[in-house]
Specification:
By secondary structure, the chain is α/β, with parallel strands linked by helices. Helices cover 35% and strands 16% of the residues. The termini are far apart. InterPro entries: Glyco_trans_2-like, Glycosyltransferase_2, Nucleotide-diphossugar_trans.
Length: 276
């Protein structure tokens, strides 16, 4: 029987609560100015304090310079520069660990996610959902080579994790921040954070979003990401749904040793801007 005594209550996000937006970035110099402008337009009218954490994954373009300019324009935009290229999951984890919001929202930097949808995510969080996942429901214009594998991987993820999200691959998600404490991420685990943190009494909300073409830069999507995602999905299933099984535990420990850098942190911060 599920204990609902610790279930989030409707209206837990009070006026003046802090919202943290975590945005991993790699070679996104063409997008950041527009991103910051749209973020500000979406967040300023809300009755919450907010911060945007831009994580530079050791970009080879002027992304870090642009972050400094944006921070000078509005100090609520903060920057984290990673010492070496670490991947989206590591960038997401760096942002989460350095955030101090009551709610955390993760987004991509390429503006394929509309910042104007942030209030929808916050509304669903405030209804008592511990996690809100976005759903790119209209993907008819996407190439079949991307759309069909995505459908297969999402169906597999729902089956294996038991989390009824339609779109695990979307980086646009909202979280009740205390659930993210002590979170450890490897590989491409950012896709499966809901499976790692949802507790039996928690509920998942979903918001349908529009999806647009990136305004600049290059997509990082590829077949290898799908294969790594399946590998990570197997591991996460082992440590969540089969964690009492001896063979599953042995396999999970082997995966940590072989694929996940023996459990060490997957990033190192070189410098920050905008933090007290």
């Amino acid at each position: 029987m599920v204990d609902n005594s610790n279930k989030l209550k409707n209206g837990w996000l009070k006026p003046g609560s802090k919202i943290s937006i975590v945005v991993p970035c790699y070679n996104e110099e063409e997008c950041l100015t527009a991103l910051a402008r749209e973020m500000k337009l979406a967040l300023d009218p809300l009755d919450y304090d907010w911060e945007v954490l831009l994580i530079n994954d050791c970009s080879t373009d002027s992304t870090w310079t642009m972050m400094k300019v944006i921070n000078h324009w509005d100090s609520r935009f903060k920057g984290i520069h990673l010492a070496y290229n670490s991947g989206q999951t590591a960038g997401t984890l760096a942002g989460i660990r350095n955030s101090n919001g009551d709610a955390v929202i993760t987004m991509d930097a390429d503006l394929q996610h509309h910042p104007r949808d942030i209030p929808k995510v916050l509304e669903l969080l405030n209804e008592g959902n511990a996690v809100v996942s976005s759903w790119r429901y209209d993907r008819a214009d996407e190439p079949a080579g991307k759309r069909i594998p995505s459908r297969i991987s999402n169906s597999l993820a729902r089956l294996m994790t038991g989390v009824p999200a339609h779109d695990f691959g979307s980086g646009f998600k909202g979280y009740y921040a205390p659930r993210l404490r002590d979170l450890i991420l490897y590989g491409s685990f950012h896709r499966y954070i809901p499976a790692l943190i949802l507790q039996p009494q928690d509920t998942l909300g979903e918001v349908r979003i529009d999806y647009r073409d990136r305004i600049g830069g290059k997509t990082k999507y590829g077949a290898t990401r799908i294969l790594k995602g399946v590998r990570d999905l197997i591991y996460i299933t082992m440590i969540t749904r089969l964690k009492g099984n001896i063979l599953a535990n042995l396999y999970a420990n082997f995966m940590v040793y072989l694929h996940y850098d023996q459990g060490r942190d997957t990033y190192r911060i070189a410098s920050k801007i905008g933090f007290d």
